[in-house]
């Protein structure tokens, strides 16, 4: 896959392209339906399957107070898109100037003029241009005028609700990570460096890896069954993770994400990890003593071991039933 980060970087032969446009946070099941249709159409017509996405999220520019906490970085999104056979991605810086382009200017100058779109595939709720004044009807009319095909891809529904990035974020914030995973088609994960903790676990309960997450979206406080991967070498472990403020050891203003590996760690501890959230076990709560907390952690470990025995096939890729 080729990734471009500005219009100036895009080559003159970016087109002819089959293009989809959007933020694609999480690259969830609905996004993947669009990407697969895009790939199939591009292969059929001999065009390049391409994506136009934005960084930062447009609301950070036009309405910062409504800006969502994102699940994925632009680079993570591009990596997930590559799984669906996308050849090229333009991660376009979203600026005030871009926000003020009319729908007509946006399509004429960028979509057709610069990216050589022969077909544009979007969802039914697609909006674009100044103050989101363009919709799919405007896009279809511009397609007739400028000679590109417009394909509207129906949304995916699961358990009676439309799969959307905003809906999945709500599930994660509520701690419903197993449901979120089904609509993401993979476990929601946090990545980042392992940092020093306060040393409480190694002294009083069990030793843990303390993650400094690089994402803004953190699951609700509680204890989770997780799967932990070393991002700078070999190593993957079944684990449990506590998200919270360690109330047993006194009040703290600093949120911690502490992961206990269910198997011994051979060699040096990892420096960067990815923690995949599979299932929520319980709320975080204060215990009367470190010994009581340790006893509960051992119960959590047994619950996690039972989970992994039942659901080995769920690690990394979680199926989602759609309708």
Characterize the structure shown:
It is a single chain. The strands form three sheets. A six-stranded parallel beta sheet has the order 1-4-3-2-5-6. A six-stranded antiparallel β-barrel has the order 9-10-13-12-11-14. It has ten helices and 14 strands. It has two domains: 2-155, Rossmann fold (3-Layer(aba) Sandwich), CATH 3.40.50.620; 187-314, Beta Barrel (Elongation Factor Tu (Ef-tu), domain 3), CATH 2.40.30.30. It starts with a strand and ends in a 13-residue tail after the last helix. By secondary structure, it is of the alpha/beta class. The model is unreliable at 199-205 and 315-323 (pLDDT under 50). The chain is elongated.
Question: What's the short story on this structure?
Answer:
By secondary structure, the protein is of the alpha/beta class.
Helix and strand arrangement:
Elements: E1 2-4, E2 17-21, H1 29-45, E3 48-55, H2 59-62, H3 74-82, E4 88-93, H4 96-99, H5 103-112, E5 117-123, H6 136-146, E6 149-153, E7 157-158, E8 161-162, H7 165-173, H8 177-184, E9 188-195, H9 200-204, E10 209-211, E11 222-230, E12 236-244, E13 256-261, E14 272-282, H10 290-310
Parallel strand pairs: 1-4, 2-3, 2-5, 3-4, 5-6
Antiparallel strand pairs: 7-8, 9-10, 9-14, 10-13, 11-12, 11-14, 12-13
Helix pairs in contact: 5-6, 7-8
Tag the structure with descriptive keywords.
323 residues, alpha/beta, Rossmann fold, Elongation Factor Tu (Ef-tu), domain 3, disordered C terminus
Radius of gyration: 22 Å
What's the CATH first level of the largest domain? Alpha Beta
Kindly report the CATH topology of the largest domain: Rossmann fold
Weakly predicted, low-confidence segments: 199-205, 315-323
Return the average pLDDT rounded to an integer.
Answer: 91
Task: Estimate percent helicity.
Answer: 25-40%
Cα end-to-end separation: 31 Å
Q: Write the CATH architecture name of the largest domain.
A: 3-Layer(aba) Sandwich
CATH superfamily of the largest domain: HUPs
Q: Give the helix tally.
A: 10
Report the strand count: 14
Tell me what portion of residues adopts beta-strand conformation.
25-35%
| Strand arrangement in the largest pleated sheet | 1-4-3-2-5-6
